[in-house]
């Protein structure tokens, strides 16, 4: 367990603000950026990484998309296309889910 910079898991201030507001409770990334038990801080609140799991894009559900701040999986796909210049959705692409929650 380590205390890491929030930017390791949450790539920009917008996503960090959404996490602080409880609108984002997980993030899929192309690589592993944290381990279970790691902590990070946003605006004075400490968050703990509770789950780090390898998956594929094809495993993602509407619930996953909602936990990442999107209305549904289709909106999530559209967001990924907007924010990544050369992104192409492939159900077999491997990703890593990082789940986190505020620490009491």
How would you describe this protein?
There is one protein chain. Helix content is 28%, strand content 28%. The protein has 4 helices and 4 strands; from the N terminus they run H-H-E-E-E-H-H-E. The chain has helices spanning 6-9, 13-20, 62-67, 73-83, and strands spanning 26-29, 39-42, 45-56, 94-102. A hairpin with a 2-residue loop joins strand 2 and strand 3 (45-56).
How would you briefly describe this protein structure?
It contains four helices and four strands, in the order H-H-E-E-E-H-H-E.
Key traits:
104 residues, alpha+beta, four-stranded antiparallel sheet, 4 helices, 4 strands, 28% strand, globular
Write the layout of secondary structure elements.
Elements (H helix, E strand, L loop, with lengths): L5 H4 L3 H8 L5 E4 L9 E4 L2 E12 L5 H6 L5 H11 L10 E9 L2
Antiparallel strand pairs: 1-4, 2-3, 3-4
